[in-house]
Amino acid sequence: MNPDWLGAFFIGLAGAGHCMGMCGGIASMLSLGQAQPSKWVPLFYNLGRLLSYALLGAIVGGAISSISQVGQVNNVLVWLRLAAALFMILLAGYIGRWWQGLLYIEKFGQIIWRYVSPAGKSLLPLRKPIHALPFGFIWGWLPCGLVYSTLTWSAVSGSVLNGALVMLAFGAGTLPAMLLAGHAATSLHKLQNSNTFRHIVGLTLLIYGLYTAYGALTLLSISL
């Protein structure tokens, strides 16, 4: 298994509290106009969300891979790996709750979101449970620092498929918190908000980010 997939999964798992905070009002929006909300709506919504992540990862991974191959610019991937390492360090600070600078990056996505969000709102109220699928696909573009950080991993994944799989792994990590209900969700939420858990994940990401940055800087020093 690619270690980046595992890392992306744990980012999604550890950062799911942030996802629930941003998407907390969506559950009520999906139930608007429904006398008895369908149990399939959350499943279709999250499936659409994961498909949008996979598409973003495929686009980014494929585009960067094509540019580096056609232009034969190997240094591009090295610089991008350095950028990915810096995002990992920012992400470590966010998950460990040491510094929230990653949230400022989300503001850049608001520009695109202004044009995308009306398409999602036009689907409400949902006429059929399956309509939650395109709604989730659109809502997957909601500005999110966690998504942007993981996309940098897709950028250096080397292919369309690997880029998509990195983002799918991230999305899979967010699923337990988004799908579970009742006591299970409460227990998971407590784990995600545990300082010990967050510090362990944050420290792991910090070490991995520093290691990746060191490797990228070493390659750059050799090529210069």
Structure description:
With 224 residues, the protein is mostly helical. It has one domain (3-27, 38-223). 79% of the residues lie in helices and 0% in strands. It has 11 helices and no strands. Helix 1 runs antiparallel to helix 11 (195-223), helix 4 (40-71) runs antiparallel to helix 5 and helix 4 (40-71) packs across helix 8 (145-155). The model has no long low-confidence stretch (mean pLDDT 81). This is Cytochrome biogenesis protein. Residues 8-211 form the Urease accessory protein UreH-like transmembrane domain. Keywords: Membrane, Transmembrane, Transmembrane helix. Pfam families: DsbD_2. InterPro entries: UreH-like_TM_dom (IPR039447).
CA radius of gyration is 18 Å
Average pLDDT confidence is 81
Strand content: under 5%
The count of helical stretches stands at 11
| Structural class by helix and strand composition | mainly alpha
Q: What pattern of helices and strands is seen along the backbone?
A: HHHHHHHHHHH
Biggest sheet overview: none
Give the uncertain stretches in residue-range form: none
Task: Indicate the multimeric state.
Answer: single chain
Distance between the first and last residues' Cα: 33 Å
Domain module tally? 1
